[in-house]
Amino acid sequence: MHRRHLLLGGAGLMMVAGCASAGMGGVSGPSASGLAEEAAAARAVLPRQSPRAELLQEWTGPYGGVPPWDKVTPAKLREAILEGIELQRAEIAAIADNPDAPTFANTSVAMMMAGEPLDRALTLFGVMTSNIGGEEWDALETEVSPVLSAAGDEITFNDKLFQRIRAVADGAGTAGLNAQQTRVATRARDAYVRNGAALDAAGKAELGRINTALTNAFTRFGQKVVADENSWTLIPNEAGVAGLPASNKTAAAAAARSRNLQGWAILNTRSSVDPFLTFGDDRGLRETVWRKFVNRGDNGDANDTNATIAEIVKLRDQRAKLLGFRNHAEWRMQDTMAKTPAAANDLMMRVWAPAKARVAEEVADMKAIAGHDIEPWDYLYYAEKVRKQKYDLDQNQLKPYFELHNVRAGSFYMAERLYGFTFERLAPGTVPVFHEDVVVYAVKDHGEPVGLFYADDYARPGKRSGAWMNTYRAHSTYDGEENVLGSNNNNFVKAPDGDPVLISLDDAETLFHEFGHALHYFSSQVVYPALGNTPRDFVEYPSQVHEHWVLSRPVLDGYLKHVETGQPMPQELVAKIEASNTFNQGYATVSYLSSAIVDMDLHTQATPPTDIDAFEKASLARIGMPREIVMRHRLPQFNHLFTSDAYSAGYYSYLWSEVMDADTWAYFEDSGDVFNPDIAGRFKSIMLAPGNTTDRGEAYRQFRGRDPDVAALLRVRGFPTS
């Protein structure tokens, strides 16, 4: 297995992010014979190593080798990580101390090969800590995260290594490197500079201290939030769940039984809380459930995260200034499409004003029904009443059409119709899995095997909340063809055995969203893994655009059939949904965008705040946050920002990506066929396959013939375009 990119030193080594590809969209790669020569020259530099630890060995079995989940324990993984660091250290030393003049093969390619055993161990580590969790895994994460951070810093701060990396990049033209090789070399040089390779000895020592402290803080933050989410509101009497759809009642009862409780348990996760806030008739209980959810990490107890956040933003500010930037946001945005905080803020504020205006209209409609002021725990409940009144649309009518397994099958149909992918479920036991709930599929592209897809759909104690995509192995060809091992991870509440798992339309769109990330990886044609990860504000684009196909007629007719009648959703019901598509967009936009704006505000302060709750309130007051809505992610539980650097000063990226997403969907719709094969083929080859081999803005212009139109986003949300 080969790394997608070298893990640079510093905090956030365990970040799972980015999408892979390359080789198409106008950039020619090296020939197969040229790649073989490069790989041979790179391997000749690296010392022959025979790992002792079981979890460092090359993966064996079918499909090019698969993760040995059945052998993973915290103790074995600890042994593997510590030995893997030593093996990587020897490889890096061999590259840095090579007496031969630096070349692309003996430096750039060798760096991509270095540390493969450790990379295998870290893949296992990241999945187990995110999907299984628990005291043993928390203890291991607390122990090894700072060690990994220091090991990364050791690589970044190796001056002999950096001089070789810089020499390859600076001499790319003289050496006759092609476009992809030049991009690999120059991006590596620039990344090393951004991460402190050019600092003096004192600066490197200080940056190392900051990075280790950040890593420790990220670990504490994540563990505290998971602990606060591993809770519930117990409702002992059936009157307390009045109004909930039968499927939600059943799931809540099952959640209670699994915890040896009597009654109904509303778990402290969004997939359990949102349905209760939407349908639960008991206003007092809605407030109780809402407060428990929005106050995760903010209860003044052992799981309170405010002090940890203050430490993180202070350390980030110190790091940015040490590296020559005014603030963390400027440092983070160097390698993005937006480039600057000002550009991101301009887009956000263009959308913020019409979103707030729409909220005022939504609240007025709800007050007319409620007869009282709307509180945050009332919003979803009365919005549902307005939806039914305005559009004769009841969400309870929709849920029977969205049975989880049928939605999954519909997503597979979309992938085959658009791109030629097929997914065949493997029999249990064919390959190891990390939990019995995980289902594995063999993936083919027009009949050619491309990898495996692991679906992990259910919530469990210890698993982090939300939904995400991960890769265990990404595609590349620089050292032989590598297939893709990808996963989707959700937190749906499991129904009792034999009962259908009914999810909401929003949940179905989330499933298609995460599946869009997977399709990005399975489409990959990347040559060099260093060009696998796209910019943060591009990476959500392929996932967001795939949400639109949920309600396409072929998906509805073939897969999303009523669980009792077996009939597809009637067109009149689809028409009601489409008529209400812009309904409640004030709420949806403001809840998300307030989180993104506060994120950017937090990371552009001249002096980092110390009172996080006070800062959050002041920041929201400055933009006029409607009192009836709370941020989608309040700072005390904002995993995107404080479990790594991944989305810090980058939560705006969903909106940035949505501009391209809305414009792309308009392209399909305007063609008269949302499965238009010509557009789908060009989207796959230009936008999905090439990864970061070319500038993503240029790629979009090649695909669409122009820059993305912001007006398309405003139209999708039902806001004025001028």
UniProtKB/TrEMBL annotation:
Ion transport among keywords: no
Pfam families named in the record: Peptidase_M3 (PF01432)
Keyword Cell cycle attached: no
Cofactor: how bound: Binds 1 zinc ion.
Protein name in the entry: M3 family metallopeptidase
Coiled coil, from the record: none
Cofactor(s) annotated in UniProt: Zn(2+)
Organism lineage string: Bacteria, Pseudomonadati, Pseudomonadota, Alphaproteobacteria, Caulobacterales
Signal peptide start and end residues: 1-22
